[in-house]
Specification:
- By secondary structure, the chain is mostly helical.
- It has 18 helices and 4 strands.
- The strands form 2 sheets. Strands 1-2 form a two-stranded parallel ribbon.
- The longest helix is centred in the first third of the chain and has 46 residues, at 10-55.
């Protein structure tokens, strides 16, 4: 046998190995896509029915204290890994647990999210689908006796399949699964299985009766200086909105940790606060908020404060025991802040609501590639180049922050900012090191010089007053 292998050219051996790997992962990804597609579709249909049933009552959201209590109680005692928004926990499992997700997470996340959303909790549905998909993939990894890198790859396929099933964007879903793990890197090793599982899950969901919302924009490219400036301004604006979202979630997480009472009781109190807020400011900020997203994308104007209130509602729900995702609220925030930007600049509301929807996702989740592809899948190819530029600016502006604190930083976003590679977002320490001769370095030195002059002036005035 050894003699035979020596006679075979190395290129032939390489092709045989690669062909075998492709066949292996195609078959496994196909199975994963079908199973996750079926499971996620069952979840989405159950969620839709429960939400439709309770929303027929005018004051259904008064059940929020009970809903938050039951959600927090079930997670605390049945599956602590299911806490918070699902995608974050799957990322954590991939990095810290070699992709191992306990089986109870699947039914507990399924039920807790339905309870939270049906009673009015401001969360999304993609996080639970990602966590359910990751849990299903982890179970399949046990059956296939996968360990290490193969298990991680299969769990990433579960993320992609879950994301694709929820939004009907198989290409963006596949890229999201391999992009969301790191800042500054894409996990190309899982590219092929992620595409297969995402596409198969999407087709399975369609076959089982799920329908999706697409809104092709009547967008005519404009090539002039004012529009280029408008695009740059939009990128900075949506980056700032992303920053507010991330920092708000971090603030409410810290606030929740400081309130040292029994978790389910704390969730019930937060549910009561959310119900009172809904009575005061309106019910548009409860639940998924899909009707507001759609009306904004169709050109309807909304209150300038909508995006900020949605951030508050979502941060409260997730920090204090509610179960669900964060991407759908990001879409609400992006679309409504896009409408505000359009109003301030006199631009088309529908166009910038669409761009805002994907750009805030790019900034808050550090996923500019999948967000740019999503713009094309949801709104048509003409808007793609402009959305991509704004997504990248938003991604850069947010810095090394994320709605997913378990993301691992591989590369810094700027050579003037130092972060230790290989650490998760919540553990990094940022050090600014401006390079000589760069615009930022010159500006920083000017500011430092001005501050030094102010200090000297203050010291001079203090001495003069002492003499007098």
């Amino acid at each position: 046998m050894a003699r035979l292998s020596k006679r075979i050219p190395s290129t032939v051996v390489e092709e045989v190995v690669l062909f075998t790997s492709v066949l292996k992962w195609f078959a496994i990804s196909l199975i994963t896509g079908v199973v996750v597609g079926i499971t996620a579709t069952a979840f989405l249909k159950a969620l839709e029915r429960s939400m439709n049933y309770l929303s027929q009552y005018s004051y259904y959201f008064l059940l929020l204290p009970a809903g938050m209590f039951l959600s927090a109680l079930s997670i605390k005692y049945l599956a602590p890994e299911a806490v918070g928004h699902g995608t974050e926990k799957v990322i954590e499992a991939v990095h810290k647990k070699a992709g191992k997700i306990s089986i109870p997470v699947i039914p507990v996340k399924f039920i807790a999210t339905i309870i939270t959303l049906s009673t009015g909790g401001s969360v999304g549905k993609e996080g639970p689908c990602a966590q359910i998909g990751g849990g299903v993939a982890s179970l399949l990894a046990e059956l296939f006796r996968f360990e290490g890198n193969d298990r991680r790859k299969l769990v990433i396929c579960g993320i992609s399949a879950g994301f694709s099933t929820v939004f009907g964007t198989p290409i963006a879903g596949a890229i999201f699964g391999i992009e969301v793990l790191y800042i500054g890197n894409v996990f190309y090793e899982a590219l092929f299985p992620s595409f297969v599982s995402g596409m198969v899950a999407y087709q399975t969901a369609q076959f089982l009766g799920l329908s999706y919302y697409y809104h092709a924009l009547e967008f005519s490219p404009i090539f002039d200086r004012s529009f280029v400036i408008e695009i740059a301004m939009a990128g900075l604006f949506f980056g700032f909105v992303s920053l507010i979202f991330v920092e708000s979630m971090s603030f409410f997480d810290e606030l929740s940790k400081r309130i040292r009472i029994w978790g389910p009781l704390k969730a019930a109190v937060a549910g009561g606060v959310l119900a009172v807020m809904a009575l005061i400011v309106g019910r548009e900020f409860l639940g998924l908020g899909l009707s507001t997203i759609r009306s904004t994308l169709e050109g309807s104007e909304v209150g300038w404060y909508y995006f900020f209130l949605k951030i508050i509602f979502t941060s409260l729900t997730l920090a204090f025991g509610g179960s669900g995702g964060v991407v759908t609220p990001i879409f609400f925030v992006g679309a409504t802040s896009g409408a505000l930007f359009a109003r301030l600049t006199g631009a088309d509301v529908s166009t910038f609501a669409a761009i805002g929807l994907v750009s805030v996702l790019a900034g808050a989740a550090n996923t500019p590639i999948s967000a740019s592809i999503m713009a094309i899948e949801l709104f048509g190819s003409k808007i793609g180049p402009y959305a991509a530029i704004i997504c990248i600016i938003s991604y850069l502006f947010t810095g090394h922050r994320s709605v997913y604190p378990s993301q691992v930083v591989i590369r810094t976003k700027s050579p003037s900012v130092y972060v230790e590679a290989g650490k998760v977002v919540e553990e990094i320490e940022i050090e600014v090191k401006p390079r000589k001769g760069t615009l930022f370095g010159i500006m920083l030195r000017c500011i430092e010089g001005a501050m030094a002059l102010l200090d000297k002036a203050h010291e001079y005035i203090r001495k003069r007053q002492q003499r007098l």
